[in-house]
Every structure is written in structure tokens, then in C-alpha cells.
Amino acid sequence: MDNQFGLMNLWAQGDIVTRGVAVMLVGMSLASWIVILIKALDVIRYKRLARGSSDFWHSEDFATALNKLGRDDTNPFRALALEGREATAHHRNTKAHLHDTLDVSDWVTRCLRNGIDEFTARLQTGLAVLASVGSTAPFIGLFGTVWGIYHALMSISTAGQATIDKVAGPIGEALIMTALGLAVAIPAVLGYNALVRGNKFVLTKLNSFAHDLHAYFVTGARVQSSEPATVLPLKKG
């Protein structure tokens, strides 16, 4: 077949712009898939930690509860529990700082919120890559198509032949760039939406855990979110 239809023929016949667009789309696809796989594994791990965080409250004292969260420093629930404990101890033991004008509730709230904000920023790392790929890849592919059609038409015009068999092949190959742009963008968009939903689940669990920690460090008991409100005692360790 003289006119082999496909990406290889497009690459062979294309100029530096066409090849540059193709390389860019391939690079964007690789970047998005790497982000999707890495962040998906993180979300799965954090979901498992979130489901296991309920065991924290089924303990006799804080030290035992902390051990149930494991010793992984990247566990956001363990980090938040340590942050709350340190904030409470710091507020209790220091006397000559500006934060002494805050009561312990406000101080613990501020420290727990800072911990959640830091984890949120870490959790959302890489999502900007997926958002950028999903929004720009179709247009980059379309640009490659327009440039490819222009390049093909210029070649046909130079050759002086405009029959359908001479036009259909080069233009059809140029349209592959649009399909390639969509093939890059669609997984990025779907991956972004799935990761956002997973992150939302983890952050909801983390905020609920922080609310219980706040009640525990301020009042000495965990507030149970039910009607009427009850408290579950947990000795301070």
C-alpha cells in the first residue's frame, strides 16, 4: 500500500511542528498516567487508614490509641493526633507567649487546622497536572490537525495534483492528531474526577477525626456525632 494510513506515516511525512505536537501529546499522556497511578495508590492507602482510624477510640489511654495508628509518619491521622497532643501540652506549659491570650480550644483548633491544611496540599499535589492535560490536550491535538492539513495541502499544491486519492490520505492522517489529543485528555479528566472524589472521602474522615480530637483534648472526651450527643471517655496518656 503506497499510502500507509497511520501515525508512522504521519510522523515520516510531518515537519518539525507536527512531530513536536505528537511528542508533546505523548509526554502529556505519560505524565498524566504516572500521576493517576501514584495518586490512586495514595488514595487507596489513605482510605484504608481512614477506615482503621475508628480503632483509635477503642483504647484505654492515648498511648495505646496512638499505637493502633501504627508508626508510619505519613499517616495523616497519627500526625494529627500528635499535633493535637503537642498543641495541648505546649499551651499548658508555656506562660509568656502571645498565644496565651487564646483559650486552649482556639489554640488546638488552629494547630489541627494547620495540620489538615498541610495534608490537603500534599494530597492535591499532581491534580493540577491532570487538570492542565485534560483542558489543553484536545486543543493541542486540534492545532496538530490544522497544521497537518495545511502542510498536506501545501504539498499537494506543490505537486500539482488534487485528486481524492492524493488528498484523503494526508488529511486523514492529520485528523489522527485530534483523536490523539482526545485520547490523552479523556483519561486525564476521568482520573482527575476519580481522585477528587477519593480525596474528598479522605478529607471528610480526617476532619471528623480532628473534630473528635479537639473535643478530647479540650474536654477529655470524644464527642459522638449522634442525637442526643454522648461522650466516649479516653484516658489521657
UniProtKB/TrEMBL annotation:
Residue stretches making up the MotA/TolQ/ExbB proton channel domain: 100-201
Role of this protein: Involved in the TonB-dependent energy-dependent transport of various receptor-bound substrates. Protects ExbD from proteolytic degradation and functionally stabilizes TonB.
UniProt keyword terms in alphabetical order: Cell inner membrane, Cell membrane, Membrane, Protein transport, Transmembrane, Transmembrane helix, Transport
Subcellular location, record wording: Cell inner membrane; Membrane
Family: Belongs to the exbB/tolQ family.
Entry protein name: Biopolymer transport protein ExbB
Keyword Cell membrane: yes
Subunit structure: The accessory proteins ExbB and ExbD seem to form a complex with TonB.
